Amino acid sequence: MVGKARERDCYEDLVVGDVEIILNEERLYDLVFACDVFVYVGDLQSIFASTRRSLQPGGLFAFSTEFLEENENEDEGFMLHRSARFAHKRSYIETLAAKYAFNILAIKTCPIRKNEGKDVKGILVVLR
């Protein structure tokens, strides 16, 4: 995907690497975009904190994650599925957004990919 983004030649800079390392560098971003990344991360608190510190004023934080029903795994806002992917509750995302002073511009529950021919329900989020 990054190769395709580079081919478009419309981005000032594209950065690829470990999310925690990149976000802890002394650099500010206009956009932090993580599509199909957080399915490999359970607790998102440190990522939200690092992203808050790394965004320019007015910057956007956009991401997707798999959807976890509110009544599942009641003690946590996320859960590791048998597929070895994490899913997150919408309320967990909303709580983190508030805790780290993000405004929710968009949050939508919808299919985000297919697995074995079936839709996988996810959450698409855009924060400022």
Structure, explained:
By secondary structure, this protein is of the alpha/beta class. 25% of the residues lie in helices and 38% in strands. The protein has 4 helices and 6 strands. The protein has helices at residues 2-8, 19-23, 45-54, 90-99, and strands spanning 29-34, 55-68, 78-80, 86-89, 104-115, 118-127. Strands 1, 2, 3, 4, 5 and 6 form a 6-stranded mixed sheet that branches. Strand 3 (78-80) and strand 4 form a beta hairpin. The longest helix is centred in the middle third of the chain and has 10 residues, at 45-54. The chain is globular and about 40 Å long. The two termini are 24 Å apart. The relative contact order is 0.17. The model has no long low-confidence stretch (mean pLDDT 93).
